[in-house]
Every structure is written in C-alpha cells, then in structure tokens.
Amino acid sequence: MMEKEMAAKTTKGNKENRFVKEQPLRHPLAVVTLNGNHLKINKQSYQIVVNKQEALSIEVLRQKYDPYLDQYDFLVGDVSSEHLRLKGFYKDNVQATIDRREQTIADYLMEYCNPGAGYFILKLLSPVHHYRSTNSKKQSPSQYRRRKKVKIRSTLQHNFIIKKRKSSN
C-alpha cells in the first residue's frame, strides 16, 4: 500500500510537459541540402539572405518544413524557446494581402518574434509556382466572347392582376 501512495504522489507532483514529447509529423520530411549560401528544399533553390545568430538548422528545418510553404517567394524562420516557426511571404508585385508581402518582413520580425532571438530569411531563386502578378495586363474587352443583343418586347402581356387595396377610413 505504501508503494501505491508513493507512486500517486510522484505522478501528481510531476506535471506532464507536452512540448518535451516529440510531436507527430503531419507531412513527409523535406529533402534539404546546403551548398555554401544556397539551400535546396524539395527541388526548390533558396538563397540565404540573413542568418542571425546561426538560427538555420538543417535538421530542424527538415522536420518543420511543410510542402505548403513552396508557394512563397520568401521564407522567414525564427527560433523561440528552441522551436522553429516558419512563415512565408510573397514578392511585392503579387496580388496578396499586405501582411504577406515582402515589405512587411521587417514588421513581422519586430512584432511577432522574440527580441534578440535568432532568425533567418530565405529567398526563392527558381520558382516553380505560378500566380497572378499585379503588373500583368488585364485582357482587353475585344478578347471576350460577345453576347447577342436581345430586344425586350414592350407589349408583353402579364398573366396576373394588380388589385387596389381597400382604403380604411
């Protein structure tokens, strides 16, 4: 009986830390290779623009990289409490919300990253994705298919009757 009480006390005193346990992967591991200042992730080439405090760890990047991030032109990774957080940004000439554009990377680092924490910025060199640019011209109206003009008859007969309301005096 004494052993059971001791075991119960130790489990109550030791709260389980959920972050210490290894998290299950929700996507396949990325293929990451580093060649000097260039990084290749899943057949996409990136240039390392900034690597503050040597925050770029290839092994951690392999585990955290999600194929969803392939669509972005810039990747920002910041390390906080030994956890890597990745966020993607588009070039400024792409139709995207303003908080996802290249010009807001500095704001993101100031507002959402811990002060003094290490971070890195990767720039996509060989894009595989296609998106609409804000600089592209719209199609001219002559390229659209023209519709036939249909005249509306003014002598159209209605098959309903409009009754006047009885006035309440």
From TrEMBL:
Pfam families: YutD-like (PF06265). InterPro entries: YutD-like, YutD-like_sf. This is Uncharacterized protein YutD. It comes from Lactobacillus bombicola.
